[in-house]
């Protein structure tokens, strides 16, 4: 099993078996999480004999191979990692002028949810990422930062539905948020879901019990079931009412205000009537709405609304007392719409294993 697949206590047991003294366990974790070291040979305060044992047992810290690294003008960087089974995943590093260094990570290869504006939905679901694969994305993105800088925020908004891979995600986030790990504040971790009521409930119970009350973001994208089902076919099974009931519980159990993501698509969900309906859903809730003008997906014919329309939509909500943020797109030049890099890369390289899942 690869190094990052082991949780903290399991790793302790393995290192004990290898005969490494206790004080060196913490040293190894420090090399991996704080000192951005991915090869055991580089852990120079361990004896040569121990470094060799670690290399024999695990090979290297990472199990994937970085196939691509793209950088855009607006401080977004994107990497594409290939795993041992040939499947690929993409992860993004975003920097802003508030010194936030945000990792956007994926939890699945492909996705079964089929959201109409999303390139990953086109390909369908392949498999869940393991705990180690999720953690490796974070460590690789952290390594892109110069010495003295480290990740400050995590958004689980890449490919996949995180609540369908909850155990592996929470296990990886344990290391990301622990003091001997990446030491990122729990309050700076956002889990974004398409809105699965049972999954939200389970997450609420788990994070309330562990004290790791992550921020929850729900992709709403439409203010009524008919339209939402067109955009997110999964909605047919759960419906907006049940999602809101679950998010009310999340707020009650964790005390954390839920964010509703609303991807604004020109001519689809950006009309006055949609504002009125959205106000009806949220005005009595402690919530925040993130408006995200859509990243165009050429295959699907969706385009970004004009600025004027975006402004009208936002003021329609704020005039009714709803707190709104507009999240401007980053990384357009690096195909940052979820799933696009993986698709583009596959098309260019003849990597087409998943096409049958469409
Ligand atoms: S937007 Fe997210 S949940 Fe929807 S298909 Fe894409 S990856 Fe899946």
What's a concise summary of this model?
This protein has two domains: 3-58, Orthogonal Bundle (DNA polymerase, domain 1); 65-357, Aldolase class I (TIM Barrel, Alpha-Beta Barrel).
Which key phrases capture this entry?
two-stranded antiparallel sheet; TIM Barrel; binds iron/sulfur cluster; 12 helices; alpha/beta; 358 residues
Topology (SSEs and partners):
Blueprint: H1 8-17, H2 22-34, H3 48-58, E1 65-71, E2 76-82, E3 88-95, E4 101-104, E5 108-110, H4 119-123, E6 125-128, H5 131-143, E7 153-156, H6 166-177, E8 189-193, H7 197-210, E9 215-219, H8 225-231, H9 235-254, E10 258-264, H10 272-282, E11 287-293, H11 307-318, E12 323-326, H12 340-349
Parallel strand pairs: 4-7, 7-8, 8-9, 9-10, 10-11, 11-12
Antiparallel strand pairs: 1-2, 2-3, 3-4, 5-6
Helix pairs in contact: 5-6, 7-9, 8-9, 10-11
Bound molecules: iron/sulfur cluster (SF4).
Structure, explained:
With 358 residues, the protein is of the alpha/beta class. The protein has 12 helices and 12 strands. It has helices spanning 8-17, 22-34, 48-58, 119-123, 131-143, 166-177, 197-210, 225-231, 235-254, 272-282, 307-318, 340-349, and strands at 65-71, 76-82, 88-95, 101-104, 108-110, 125-128, 153-156, 189-193, 215-219, 258-264, 287-293, 323-326. The strands form 2 sheets. A 10-stranded mixed sheet has the order 1-2-3-4-7-8-9-10-11-12. It has a two-stranded antiparallel ribbon with strand order 5-6. The protein is elongated. The site of iron/sulfur cluster (SF4) has 12 residues, from helix 4.
């Amino acid at each position: 099993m690869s190094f990052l697949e082991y949780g903290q206590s399991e790793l302790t047991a393995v290192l004990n078996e290898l005969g490494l003294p206790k004080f060196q366990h913490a040293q190894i974790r420090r090399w991996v999480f704080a000192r951005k070291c991915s090869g055991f040979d580089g852990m120079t305060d361990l004896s040569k004999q121990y470094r060799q044992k670690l290399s024999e047992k695990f090979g290297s810290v990472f199990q994937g191979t970085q196939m691509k690294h793209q950088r855009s003008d607006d401080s977004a960087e994107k990497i594409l990692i290939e795993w041992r089974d040939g499947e690929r995943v993409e992860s993004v590093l975003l920097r802003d002028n508030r010194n936030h260094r945000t990792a956007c990570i994926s939890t699945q290869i492909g996705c079964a949810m089929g959201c109409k504006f999303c390139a990953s939905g086109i390909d369908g679901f392949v498999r869940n990422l393991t705990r180690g694969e999720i953690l490796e994305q974070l460590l690789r993105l952290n390594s892109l930062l110069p010495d003295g800088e480290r990740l400050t925020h995590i958004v689980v908004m890449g490919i996949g539905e995180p609540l369908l891979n909850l155990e592996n995600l929470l296990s990886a986030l344990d290391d990301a948020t622990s003091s001997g790990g990446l030491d990122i504040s729990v309050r700076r971790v956002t889990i974004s879901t398409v809105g699965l009521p049972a999954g939200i409930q389970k997450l609420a119970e788990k994070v309330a019990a562990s004290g790791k009350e992550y921020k929850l973001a729900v992709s709403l994208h439409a203010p009524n079931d008919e339209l939402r089902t067109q955009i997110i076919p999964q909605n047919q099974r759960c419906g907006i009412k049940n999602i809101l009931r679950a998010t009310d519980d999340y707020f009650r159990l964790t005390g954390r205000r839920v964010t509703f993501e609303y991807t604004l698509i020109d001519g689809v969900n950006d009309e006055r009537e949609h504002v009125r309906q959205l106000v009806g859903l949220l005005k009595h809730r402690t919530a925040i709405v993130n408006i995200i003008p859509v990243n165009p997906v050429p295959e699907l014919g969706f385009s970004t609304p004009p600025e004027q329309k975006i402004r009208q939509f936002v003021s329609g909500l704020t005039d009714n007392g709803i707190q709104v943020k507009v999240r401007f797109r980053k990384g357009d030049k690096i195909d940052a719409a979820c799933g696009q890099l993986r698709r583009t890369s596959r098309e260019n390289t003849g990597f087409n294993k998943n096409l049958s899942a469409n």
